[in-house]
Amino acid sequence: MKRITLDNYRKDKIYCRIVAAVERILEREREVRPVDVLVEMGLVSRTAVADWRAGRVPYLERVVRCNLAKASRILRILRMHAHDRKLSPKVVGYRHKGRRLRFSKSGDRGVEEAYARHFRVLGRGAPRAPIVRDSPDSAP
Fold it and tell me: Which long-range contacts (CB under 8 A, 24 or more apart) does 123-127 make?
């Protein structure tokens, strides 16, 4: 697929997997974290995330089981889907023993913020925006 845009992100082949992961997370929590989406999608193990959080892995992307282009695509689609669901974004700092945890080898600010951006349900109930599930095969 070409560059992910607002016009085409629902047609991406991994969109349905991202939506399913978000829904499973929202069934048990009021906040969606990109790291949890990757775990739900089976692209990183909970053990690997625990090792990263404990400082035993230098950066999260080292233990993600997909190429960096796919991980970036997932983060971009997640952000757009969260916007559609009217989830509130907030960039959160990840630290261990006073040291900032890194998500990427490069340390690029945009990449780091994409991984650190949590999406929270506002108000008391579940998000009110309807879930739109377009399959990659559906015509516009």
Answer: 126/26, 127/26, 127/85, 127/86, 127/87
Residues 12, 73 contacting (CB under 8 angstroms):
yes
In a domain, 39, yes or no: yes
**Cβ-contact 44, 64 below 8 angstroms:** yes
Residue 89: give the domain boundaries.
Answer: 9-120
Q: What is the pTM of this model?
A: 0.85
The model's pLDDT over 29-42, given as tens digits with 9 standing for 90+, comes to: 999 999 999 999 99
Instruction: Tally the C-alpha atoms within 13 A of residue 92's C-alpha that lie toward its C-beta.
Output: 16
Report d(CA 93, CA 137) in Å as an integer. Answer: 38
Q: Is the residue at 89 inside a domain?
A: yes
List the one residue out of 75, 19, 16 whose CA is nearest residue 44: 75
Q: Is 30 exposed, middle or buried (0-12, 13-18, 19+ CB in 10 A)?
A: middle
Q: Which amino acid is at 85?
A: R
How many domains does one find in the chain? 1
What does the alpha-carbon distance between residue 103 and residue 115 come to, in Å, rounded to a whole number?
A: 7
